[in-house]
Amino acid sequence: MTEVKAKKFLGQHFLTDDGIARRIVDSLSPESHSVIEIGPGMGVLTKFLIDRADTDFHVIEIDRESVAYLHDHYPSLHVIEGDFLRFDLSALFHESFAIIGNFPYNISSQILFRVFDCRQSVTEVVGMFQKEVAERVAAGPGSKTYGILSVLLSAFYDIEYLFTVHENVFNPPPKVKSAVIRLRRNGVQTLSCDEALFVRVVKAGFNQRRKTLRNALRSASLPVESVSVEVLAKRAEQLSTADFINLTKVIESCL
Ligand code: SAH
How far apart, in whole angstroms, are the C-alpha atoms of residue 178 and residue 112? Predict the structure, then answer.
């Protein structure tokens, strides 16, 4: 693969507006003292993050050229050259930490599933996503955009849609609008149901979102034959996170 072609897969749209960059960085709560930025690129967010008082700050960037740029411009910055999706975060942080970034849009969902997996150590996420993804994550039950990530993440995070960002403040401009959201860990340590089963139930429900839950869960081989709760006649998008937790408990008792 040529260098140019390889770069196409990195989702590089550099933010050119310092005012928006500062607003993103200021959205991180002052209590977040350990922070990792994903995909700093040419450092538009990084330059404000470096100045944050009392912060153990690291960046991870996959693109060699951006890494070289960051080394040149910010010699004291700890830059990890690598793929965030493969990086072992526990090697960097022994306690909890926050994640920030204008994320590469092609791996947005994977980043968010990673956050869910690391929910015991990720206390906060402030991130720019493609607007549709941001809306989907922040959506509540009943809306068409509500989905797997909305349910899973809202079990452990308070999710806020902060603001929309126009495509013309990026170089090159993306084809879609962007938006910044914030996830803050709620007080829930563990769910009152089997968490792995909860994930299975939520995924199975939304994977066939036009079917009733009874049919969607049955085709995912979940034991719903003997379960007689009303919610099984509904579709996944009609259930809140609490409804999914209750449904999981009922299914659990049939296993
Ligand atoms: N934060 C910068 C760049 C945003 S573009 C800005 O706002 O201008 C997204 C950045 O993520 C690019 O620099 C790209 O090289 C980087 N990137 C893409 N995939 C990555 C991955 N898997 N791990 C770490 N960084 C990645």
Answer: 16
| Ligand 1 centroid to residue 160 C-alpha, Å | 23
The beta strand positions in 55-208, using DSSP E, are: 56-61, 78-81, 97-102, 122-130, 157-165, 170-171, 178-185
Does one domain contain both 11 and 109? yes
Residues 79, 30 share a domain: yes
pLDDT in tens, 192-239: 999 999 999 999 999 999 999 999 999 999 988 888 788 999 999 999
Domain membership of residue 232 (yes or no) is: yes
**Which residues are 165's β-sheet partners?**
178
Over residues 165-201, the pLDDT tens digits come to 999 999 999 999 999 999 999 999 999 999 999 999 9
Q: What is the CATH number of the domain that holds 139?
A: 3.40.50.150
pLDDT digits (tens, 9 = 90+) for 55-79: 999 999 999 999 999 999 999 999 9
**Ligand 1 first shell, C-beta below 6 A:** 10-15, 38-41, 44-45, 60-63, 66, 83-85, 101-102, 104, 107
pTM above 0.70, yes or no: yes
Q: Are residues 159 and 215 located together in one domain of the fold? A: no
